[in-house]
Amino acid sequence: MKALRTFTLILAFSFLAGCNFYKHFYLEQGKTQNPFGVLLENYITTNRYLVVHQGSETWHLRSPDLNSDKTVLSGLFEKPPARYMMLYDKIKGKHTAPCPNSDKPFVEQVHLDVSSVSIEDGLMKIKVQDISKMEVLTRDETASSCGTAGVVVAGIGAGCGLALLSANALCNCPYIYTGDSIPRFEGNLFTGALYPSLERSDNIVIDAPVDLRGNLRFTMFNRREEAIYANQVRLLVVDHPRGVDVLPDQQSVFHTLSHAVAPVYARTAAGVDVSKFMQNEDGRFYSFDDDGESGSMNSVVLTFDNEQGATTGKLLLDLKNSEWQAYVYQQVCGLFGDQYPAWHEKQSKKSGAELTESSRNSGMLLSVYVETARGWKFIDQVFAVGSLRTKEVLVPVDLTGMKAGLVHIMLKTGFHFWDLDRVALDLSPDQKISIDTVSLSSVKDSLGMEYREKLLNNDHSYLELSRMNDHVVLDFTAVPFNDPSTQKLFLNGKGYYSRNEKYSGSMQTKELLRLKREGGLSLYSRRLYNERMKMLTIKNN
Question: Of 107 and 15, which is predicted with more confidence?
């Protein structure tokens, strides 16, 4: 997996991709819009490192639990290791600065200042009313490296084409936030929809709680030098059976997941067993970077057990685009030199089907295949999700006509273009669910202008955010809320965005002609990666 080698390379080129940042903010009891217990629940359910301060005493609260009426916090307690406190000591009084370490538990922390604690049956118990302040240390994903995004199709002369869908770039607009006082980043909508012909519907799972009045507020930001054209935004409230999860596929059709199992084994085309990377959402990625691959693309074959002979399956992928993909994208765009704007404009006239097919063939999209009696059958491609965080993507798999036994599914992409955290296949039939669609009650910009009508319907009326830091506040009211174990919220949005990037210099025609060959972009990525590794080896020696 070249984990150490990849890590070294990422460090060495962090100045190219940008560095990570953290932000520090605090919430005070009695000075927040939502009840403090609601805010506390939001933070302790996101796997942050929880620290309790009482005077000069400090404890790490493990396995925190908040009672049903959100008045008492409890958990196991221990002294926190010194390395987990270094960041906290460094950034007190600062709002944002570079992260000194990329280890998630080290960065993602919540600190509680409390007036009193009690110890009962080995558990520390804290009354929420005794918490005076909550300090949050988290990744500042708006300041982190995000690259430049897009789907581009390169033409050299007449009829020559290369398409690539950038990685980091695809973490671009719009940015969606929720939260009290300091917004919390929830994700990006319609990532990679760089042209009108690529406009698509997209969904974000929303973890933020609905307040006691049934209200939910979002902020939609333009964080880049590009124009966002938002067609429709709505909230989907999905009620489902207890013990069952629910996710939409890439066409926004919802499915239930009740028995998702990991693959029996997972092997690359070079025969490397990478099963250990697929089992859990633990941040250990398989990054499609095996040097032993004989073809131009990189792939992994997943084997699942289908003894019952199910005719349909739901492939669950927890993944993101890689940081390396963004670097490759920038290098390729630079090959066009000062001809980039004209080339980019030419591609905007192509159909969405053409752009998608070209991006898939270049290896920038992740292609999914199932093995049949006649060979490998293409199922679908996974569209860009960005590189800021992983996203769960569901791909329906048609198993009709296949014999009971083992099912083989192949994932194929360009060299080092995706980071795959977890894979599972659910063969259970879809269960009954109900979906309530909640329309926007208000959409206001920073001047208080109302734009609700622009986002109500799927039509040709768009809300445009044309400058960096343009934003609107999206309000939903009368949101039906139920037991979180039987209800899930999704923000659904449709639209596209455009960029106006410029590069200098002359077009590198010879290199671009090499890229347009089958698998050329993946081979270029592999060659570039190995060249950079060789430079690092020479420098270190």
Answer: 107
* CB-based contact 27:105 (threshold 8 Å): no
Q: Are 436 and 236 in contact (CB under 8 A)?
A: yes
Q: Are 385 and 322 in contact (CB under 8 A)?
A: no
Strand partners, 22: 97, 139
Please give the structure tokens belonging to residue 528. 């570039």
Please state the separation of Cα 261 from the chain's center in Å. Answer: 22
- At residue 338's C-alpha, the angle toward residues 336 and 343, to 5°, is 60
- Tell me the β-bridge partners of 164: 152
Helix H or strand E segment including 28: strand 21-28
Ranking 200-214, 389-403, 414-428, 434-448 by mean pLDDT, the lowest is 200-214
**Residue 499 near residue 256, CB atoms below 8 Å:** no
Contacts of residue 234, defined as CB under 8 A and 6 or more positions apart, other chains included, come to: 437, 438, 439, 440, 491, 492, 493
pLDDT, residue 265, reads 93
Token representation of residue 128: 């929420």
Q: Is the sign of the CA dihedral 530, 533, 539, 541 positive or negative? A: negative
DSSP 329: H
Q: Residue 502 is encoded by which pair of tokens?
A: 């410029």
Q: How far apart are CA 2 and CA 291, in angstroms?
A: 9
- Tokens 């538990």 locate to 105
The full length of the chain comes to 541
Tokens of 266: 């997972």
- Return the pLDDT at 183: 65
Best CA proximity match to 408, nearest among 435, 378, 442, 371: 371
DSSP sequence for 99-119: -S---HHHH-EEEEEES--EE
Asked if residue 42 lies in contact with residue 207, where contact means CB atoms within 8 angstroms, the answer is yes
261: Cβ contacts below 8 Å, ≥ 6 apart: 304, 305, 424, 425, 426
* 90 band by pLDDT with thresholds 50, 70 and 90: low
Write down the pTM of the prediction.
0.71
Bond preceding residue 341 cis, omega within 30 of 0: no
Neighbours of 172 (CB within 10 A): 29
| Percent of the chain as helix, strand, coil, to the nearest 5 | 20, 40, 40
Highest mean pLDDT among 74-88, 275-289, 366-380: 366-380
